[in-house]
Amino acid sequence: MNNLPRICWTTSAIIALAGMLWGLQMAVSGDHSNLAAHAHLNLLGWVSLALYGTYYHLAGITRLLLARLQVLFAIPGSIVMGIGVAIADQTGAEELAKLGSLLVIISAVLFVAVTITRPLRINSVN
């Protein structure tokens, strides 16, 4: 995993496509019972991963171990949480949603640590 921005953006694009197809399936079927899961997948998988990738690109982070760990928790966390919320909504079984939530929270804590240890250095043009 030596190019974190690309990994984040590519995964984000794949998850965005999956989320869009899921949304289309809900629209065609008229069954919107998985709306919350669809929203979680898009927000965490598409938006958050794209933002992580953007930060890593702007900060020049491509190989930092802390950032690698953050991405290793963010990707499966986003997917597991989306699937877990769907299962919880359908069956009441919340274990996967809880696991996904834990992975996403760990990822968020690691991202905070990355932003503190490797802040963006924006050059002003004045």
Can you walk through the features of this model?
The protein is an all-alpha fold. The chain contains 4 helices and no strands. The longest helix has 27 residues. The radius of gyration is 16 Å and the shape is elongated. The mean pLDDT is 93.
Question: Could you give the distance between the termini?
Answer: 37 Å
Shape: elongated
How many E-type strands? 0
Q: Can you summarize the main beta sheet?
A: none
Overall mean pLDDT score? 93
Give the number of helices. Answer: 4
Secondary-structure element pattern, one letter each = HHHH
Would you identify the regions where 5 or more consecutive residues have pLDDT less than 50? Answer: none
In helices, the fraction of residues equals over 70%
SS strand fraction? under 5%
Q: Rg, please?
A: 16 Å
Supply database-style keywords.
mainly alpha, 126 residues
Give a quick precis of the structure:
With 126 residues, the chain is an all-alpha fold.
Helices and strands in order:
Layout: H1 4-29, H2 35-59, H3 65-91, H4 95-117
Helix pairs in contact: 1-2, 1-3, 2-3, 3-4
